[in-house]
Design goal:
This protein is α/β, with parallel strands linked by helices. It has two domains: about 55-160, no CATH class; about 165-334, 3-Layer(aba) Sandwich (Rossmann fold). The chain is about 40% helix and about 15% strand. It has a six-stranded mixed sheet. It has a six-stranded parallel sheet with strand order 9-8-7-10-11-12, with helices on both faces. Helix 2 crosses helix 10 (about 290-295), helix 5 (about 165-185) crosses helix 9 and helix 9 (about 270-280) crosses helix 10 (about 290-295). It is globular, with a radius of gyration of 26 Å.
């Protein structure tokens, strides 16, 4: 009985010490999450407690959705190479469109406003000098970073993240089904139908400033050549032609794009239009990052307008010599 009594006391004492340690750990955990909430830190399922370092990489978002997708994707790739953690603000446009797998801040100023500012070298070319910086301190990388080579090694991860929200996906599917039914209702044979998404952008590229900088817009002849390419390859094609809300762009499309196999899609929310374009079998794009990403997210053949920059212009100098830093190797330029 005595031995039992001594062992019992030892067990009771050990249990008391363990409980005390648990209480301290629990209290410290509560304090950690309380402070995290103050500083606006939120965590996704892939983040472990205590796995946050000072090696932060911050974006400098500007422009439209396509621009943001380039910046986010390229920074993802650079962060991977530099062993850094990409952080964004929860209200950033791209985070409201897609479900992203990065560190998300309620208020980025606690880290990103104090980061070292680094500028890119050329907006539309892959340049090693762009990320030749010290990663031991928080860095904000300012640039358009429009080269698929920055993120080719994280492509699979990005494709899993760039999934449109269900509401947008449903609306986009309705767009595709609406115009497909409109086209096939007057045809006896709708088998093996190939839907080619076409994105036309002109508008702002025709301003005096942009023309002087070196922008070209795709002419009617380019679109006709791209249409003929698919017509020669497939017997049953449907071209769904998208453009923005610009009255000038809509008028140009109505005046210049015609065909029994062509339907002009009424403009929707930008997210819906991009999502609808990704649902097409193949893609034809003119100029702009919106069309670029619509094509990249699609898995079919892409035809692009290769004369987007005037020879010897300031814009042309933003690209690599053969422009393959901007246009993927498996895309076809006309």
């Amino acid at each position: 009985m005595r031995c039992f009594g001594q062992n019992y006391q030892r067990v009771l004492c050990s249990a008391t010490n363990i409980c005390s340690a648990c209480a301290v750990f629990f209290f410290m955990t509560i304090i950690f999450f309380y402070k995290s909430n103050i500083y606006g830190l939120t965590y996704n399922s892939n983040m472990l407690l205590g796995n946050v370092s000072n090696r932060y990489l911050c974006p400098y978002f500007r422009g439209g959705l396509g621009n943001h997708m380039f910046m986010y994707s390229s920074l993802n790739g650079i962060a991977k190479i530099k062993n850094m953690k990409l952080v964004i603000n929860e209200k950033d446009t791209i985070n409201t469109v897609f479900k992203l797998n990065v560190l998300i801040l309620k208020n980025a100023k606690y880290i990103c406003e104090q980061a070292v500012l680094v500028n890119e070298k050329r907006p539309c070319a892959y340049d090693l000098e762009t990320f030749n910086f010290d990663p031991s301190k928080p860095v904000k990388l300012k640039g358009y970073l429009q080269s698929w080579k920055y993120f080719k090694h994280v492509e699979k991860e990005l494709r899993k993240q760039f999934i449109f929200k269900e509401e947008v996906n449903q609306k986009a599917q309705e767009v595709i089904e609406k115009y497909t039914k409109m086209f096939t209702s007057n045809k006896t044979n709708s088998e093996k139908l190939k839907i080619i998404g076409v994105h036309i952008r002109r508008g702002d590229y025709l301003t005096t400033h942009n023309i002087k900088y070196g922008y070209n817009v795709a002419p009617k002849a380019y679109l006709q050549k791209a249409f003929d390419y698919f017509r020669s390859k497939y017997k049953n094609c449907l071209f769904l032609v998208f453009t923005g809300t610009s009255k000038e762009d809509i008028k140009w499309r109505d005046d210049n794009v015609h065909g029994k196999d062509v339907l002009k899609v009424a403009a929707n929310e930008r997210n819906v239009d991009m999502c609808a374009l990704t649902k097409c079998d193949h893609t034809i794009i003119t100029v702009g990052s919106f069309g670029w990403w619509s094509a990249w997210l699609s898995t079919g053949t892409t035809i692009y307008f290769k004369d987007i920059a005037q020879t010897n212009s300031s814009l042309r100098k933003d690209f690599s010599a053969d422009m393959t830093d901007f246009f993927p190797n498996d895309w076809i330029g006309f």
